[in-house]
Amino acid sequence: MSEWNHYVTMKGTNNGIVVYLDDQCSFDFLLKELENKLVNNQTSGATDITIHSQHRYLSEDQRQTLIQLIGQHSELTVKNIESYVLTRESAYELYEHTTVKTVMKTIRSGQVHEVKGDALVIGDVNPGGAVHASGNIFVLGKLRGIAHAGVEGDENCIVAASYMHPNQIRIASKISRAPDYDVQGSPREFAFINPSTEQIELDQLQHIQKIRPKLLDVFERGL
């Protein structure tokens, strides 16, 4: 069963089976068409599917109605419901997590600068100061305090600084501390989690495109 009709279309993709729902007809008419096709096009064996309502907004009641209808008339199981529609709350959350929050100041000892999204600090982060961000951290100055990028668990985030000499760098749950002995800092470096070693490593900023080629693509960051 590859295609039902103009209003309900089932297609196989790299991510599994997706059922596309027409977004122009009424919801009641869509339910009747979907029920008719489920009854007359039975599948064998349990199969997970994703429903895509395209540009149609589905309320929670409508979502539950679709899930119940499919479960009642088939062995298909709805694992996800997607659309091109964003609620105001979802749009605001996306904005919060994908924009760069800029501050022009020195983060002094005892101060903690926290943002959702990427943090851009135009100034120094002194020893005892800290920057926390759900996204990446960029310091146009000396990073000598603490930087914690990806605080919500994103291991693809980075910490970059004009001059890197931190007390501590954290990315998601990984931690890299400064050595007990005194070392010189380094100009124009960034910290990242190497997936091969699962440890935080440093490299020169000119290599950032090779190591994180999709750094600026927010959709590749799981948002």
Automatic annotation (TrEMBL):
Septum formation inhibitor MinC C-terminal domain location = 103-200
> Which controlled-vocabulary keywords does the entry list?
Cell cycle, Cell division, Septation
Q: Does the keyword Cell division apply?
A: yes
Domain Septum site-determining protein MinC N-terminal: start-end pairs: 8-81
Q: Gene3D superfamilies per the record?
A: 2.160.20.70, 3.30.160.540
Report the coiled-coil segments.
Answer: none
Q: Name one GO biological process term.
A: regulation of cell septum assembly
- HAMAP family reported in the protein's UniProt record: MinC (MF_00267)
Assembly, in brief, is: Interacts with MinD and FtsZ.
Family per similarity comment: Belongs to the MinC family.
Q: What does this protein do?
A: Cell division inhibitor that blocks the formation of polar Z ring septums. Rapidly oscillates between the poles of the cell to destabilize FtsZ filaments that have formed before they mature into polar Z rings. Prevents FtsZ polymerization.
Please give the name of this protein.
Probable septum site-determining protein MinC
Organism of origin:
Piscibacillus halophilus
Encoding gene (name): minC
